[in-house]
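Teaching soon. Invent one.


***
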Amino acid sequence: MRGRCHSIFARDTLGWLAARAGIRQGRSSRSGVLTQSRLQLYGYAIATIYGAFLLSAYTAGDWIVDAKGVPFYTDFACEWVAAVEALRGHSALLYDPAKFVEMQAALVGPGADFGANWPYPPIFLLIMAPFAVLRYGYAFIAWDLTTLFGCIAVVYVITRNPAGIALFLASPFTAWNFLAAQNGFLTTSLLGASLLFLEHRPVLAGVFVGTLAYKPQFGLLFPVALLAARQWRAIASAAITLALLAAASAASFGSGVWVAFPREIFAQTSLNLLAGPDSQWGYLQSVYGLVRTLHGGATLAWFSQALAALGVVTVVWFVWRSQLGFSLKAATLSAAALLCTPYIFAYDMAAIAVPAAFLARDQLRHGVLQGELFTMTGLFGAPLLALLVFKDPPVGVTFGSLPIGPAVVVTLLGLILRRAIRHGSSPSSLAASAV
């Protein structure tokens, strides 16, 4: 009986997706459980719960500012302080750990667990500068909403389906990023826009690729893909954009920031990847973080991460050399980018919306394969379940400290490659996917 129910569910959902893709099916799509209207209802309902939680946290003094109106220390506080001090002409001091701690303490008071290292390249200060002229609370909300709207726009333009917006807002990784006001939304927007424009406007795509260098670990695979696809204009545009941003940051904040930056990158690497056995490795949503969380040594963790990186580099090269449709190429690259780096946190995982959106676009055009919807539902549900289970976590354990990222991304990449193999094995499917 259970198998019969699953069969009916899959058939009805396939009917809806096929109808959206213009494929004729014998059953009405309106009877499916995951119709467009219901997906939007589910997504917005979950997003409303997130909103209620954030509102309650704000009124309790646990979000943005505390009960006394003092900024509540989050990742955004670190970034906002850095931008404020850079505008005051103190940008070189950001890369002095002792001075940087003093700057943060001046904002929120002593006692917080301050980050001593400023790990971002100076071009990030250019991005943050407009928000540094606002008061902290307004800057926090403006940053969250501006970068969130960028993600929404990218997801919608990729899928051309309103349900994609609702599902993005319902993602636990979206909620986590919004809570911390980190830069995961910015990464998502730049990664998605780079791929969105690459097919028809490669010069504009290169501008977004160059800007993504503010967080360079997520752009490591772009050279592989662009070389494989012979996207010379995009490569040139990305290089010129990066050079202009570097020059602009040096002109704005002094050349000393580029002298100090490499030193702090190595310091941050030592702090997060080479620390002792008592470190909270689970915060790293990478293969490296997973191995260390399971008590593997540094050598094993680096070896495992290197194997993962080599694997995705190989996959990206062959996929982008192939004649597959662009949606699957973009989905492969954006998913692989999240596996390639050892340095990725829960808020960075908001970028999983990009490969999911490109995968959904291919499904809407060509229909779903057996088991895809159940797997994707599980990929959405697992992080959501982790968020709910750890709302009152044991000491030292939070949603962001569970290394579920590699499992989620590997599974999603598997779905993408499965479709790529199906398209590639059939000449008619391959021709259709190129439309």
Confidence is low (pLDDT under 50) at residues 1-31, 391-397, 426-435. The longest helix spans residues 36-59. The radius of gyration is 22 Å.
